[in-house]
Amino acid sequence: MECRRVGLAAVFLCASGCSTNEGYPSQASHGVRNLGDTINHCRNYTEYHVEGSPVISLDSLSTRREERYYEVFLNLNTKEDSGWAHCRITMAGDIRVHRIHNFGREGNFFGLF
To answer: d(Cα 72, Cα 96) in Å, to the nearest integer?
Structure first.
């Protein structure tokens, strides 16, 4: 009986700790229908996570649809800094990889979800 209580408490803590409403969600609320939706999802997610309000533009030569996911590349520019961002997004709209390169004082940002 005690093991069951501990197990249920662990499941509850994991579920409550893993689901958070902080920040811009990595999962698109209604999935993504096409490359345009995917680009907007990556742009919004990047805009939320990058300081300095950069001008964000699409690197259309690198952005593509693969068999199981989308690869989106964005250029980031401010008066003081420039760099680029990369998102790998599943067909369901979940950002699995988000990287920011050569932008900001912190150096490279790497995120895997």
So the answer is: 12
Residue-range domain boundaries for the chain: 24-112
Side chain identity at residue 50, one-letter code: V
Which of 46, 87, 47, 49 is CA-nearest to residue 70?
Answer: 87
72-80: average pLDDT: 93
Phi/psi at 72 (5° precision)? -120, 130
- State both tokens at 11: 């499941």
Higher-pLDDT residue of 64, 1? 64
Token pair 């790998």: residue: 88
pTM score: 0.70
Question: Other C-beta atoms within 10 Å of 35: how many?
Answer: 14
